[in-house]
Amino acid sequence: MKIVSVDTLVVDFYRTNLVIVRVRTDEGITGLGEATLEGKERAVLGAVAEVAEAVVGLDPTAISKVLYEITRDWYWRGGPVIMTALSALEMALWDISARDLGVPVSRLFGGATRDRVRAYANGWFSGAVTAEDYAAAARRTVRSGFRGLKWDPFENYDLTISTGQLDRVLAQVDAVRAAVGREVELFIEGHGRFDVRHAITIARELAQFDPVWFEEPCPPDNLDALVDVRRASPVPIAAGERWYGRQGFAPALARQAVDYVQPDVTHAGGIAELVFISTLAATSYVGFAPHNPSGPLSTAATLQLAATLPNFRYLEIMATDVPWRPDITNERLVLTDEGDVLVPAGVGLGIELDLTAIEQHPFTPRPLRMFRDAVYDIRPRDERSFFNLGSGA
Fold first, then answer.
1. What is the Cα gyration radius of the chain?
2. Residue 353 and residue 230: Cα distance in Å, rounded?
3. Most buried pick, 40, 87, 107, 167, via CB within 10 A?
4. pLDDT tens for residues 4-29?
5. What pLDDT does 392 receive?
6. In this structure, are 89 and 223 located in the same domain?
7. How far apart are CA 255 and CA 251, in angstroms?
8. 35 in a domain, yes or no?
9. How far apart are CA 313 and CA 266, in angstroms?
10. Is residue 361 part of a domain?
11. What's the number of CA atoms in the CB half-sphere (13 Å) around residue 164?
């Protein structure tokens, strides 16, 4: 079997644009991957084009060889653009191999250890402004089936936070906790906003609400700062969505910088690299909870990891999405009454594309608003659930 082409499709998804990578073979098997890179889609499209030049004519089932030689020959290594392009290629190659064998990707990594995984909702708060708005949105989301809620309550704060600002944050978290009770898990997102002193202050104040974690409290490029925060924090620390490959995670694990690691399958190196990172995490009893705010392919690959990795703790997923998410693929996820997402049955990653639907939602520039605008404006006004709800029995 040989690779005959690599191409891309770009789909507007409001918060960002999804970048889908297709790898075609001479035996008629096509593998799919996702190279969504928030706000930098055009950069990653160029990197994928260079990947295509490197791999056409190669055996798509020789995955380790192909990835090793590309990485060796490119000279420049790591970074979000290169690693996102390589992650999508790797994902598509595993899809091809599993489709060729007629099995799900999880079978190639030892088979399933579970058929469902605990999920937490992101994006559930879209449009909320006041603490009361967040409480109402939290109640709606829990009624839909979720038993975990994640959000960034810090507006556009940059490195520091005043007493008044912190009071507003705490009032919002308090309102959500009161609305959903102690049985629902809360995850507080920092998006790398704070310096060490202010991150520690925030962590100490958050402890009263018993969150599962305080995520990415400091910018991702200073491990010393994260170590300092984790040592002083009374709540667990999570990080890793902006680290790439095992070289990004091994030092953090060795220095006990985190309680949970959050590699993104579309950025950190792909499926096999996340399996390796999960093994590193398991040696330190660190929870494995991949970053996954993107589209159907990212979610499908992450669910294959959830199926096979014993230390996979939580699936991040959007509570709602653009109304056309169900149209562009055959993704049909089930959210159980217990707050779990079932691992879909299917061959490969289990995803097929609807090209006609994709063509109706072309690339639209989507600058990230995290430090410039309202972080809560994450979904369109016509957002909707894309889950099938059921008991999951």
1. 20
2. 42
3. 87
4. 999 999 999 998 999 999 999 999 99
5. 53
6. no
7. 6
8. yes
9. 19
10. no
11. 0
Distance of CA 229 to CAs 207, 293, 354, Å?
A: 14, 25, 46
Whole-prediction pTM: 0.95
Q: In the structure, what pLDDT confidence band is assigned to residue 204 with cuts at 50, 70 and 90? A: very high
Taking alpha carbons only, the member of 342, 292, 348 closest to residue 319 is 292
Q: Pick the catalytic residue: 198, 267, 291, 361?
A: 291
Active site residue 361: no
Q: Are residues 204 and 235 in the same domain?
A: yes
CATH of the domain at 303: 3.20.20.120
| CA–CA distance, 308 with 113 (Å, rounded to integer) | 5
Residue with tokens 């909707």: 384
CA nearest neighbour of 334 among 345, 324, 323, 325: 345
Residues 11, 307: Cα–Cα separation, whole Å: 27
Domain stops at, among 87, 103, 119: 103
In the DSSP assignment, the letter for residue 377 is: -
267 in active site = no
Instruction: Say whether pLDDT at 370 is over 90.
Output: no
Residues 41 and 111 reside in one and the same domain: no
Neighbour tally for 185: CB within 10 Å: 19
Task: Name the domain boundary from 103, 138, 161.
Answer: 103
Q: What is the pLDDT of residue 281?
A: 98
Q: Where are the beta strands (DSSP E) in the chain?
A: 3-12, 17-25, 30-34, 116-122, 148-151, 185-189, 213-215, 237-239, 260-261, 287-288, 315-318, 333-336, 340-342, 387-390
Q: Which domain holds residue 253?
A: 107-349+369-390
- C-alpha to C-alpha distance for 378 and 370, rounded to whole angstroms: 10
Instruction: Give the model's confidence band at 390: pLDDT under 50 very low, under 70 low, under 90 confident, else very high.
Output: low
Q: CB within 8 A of 278, min separation 6: which ones?
A: 288, 305, 309, 311, 312
In a domain, 166, yes or no: yes
**Model confidence pLDDT, tens digit, residues 146-189:** 999 999 999 889 999 999 999 999 999 999 999 999 999 999 99
Number of domains in the chain: 2
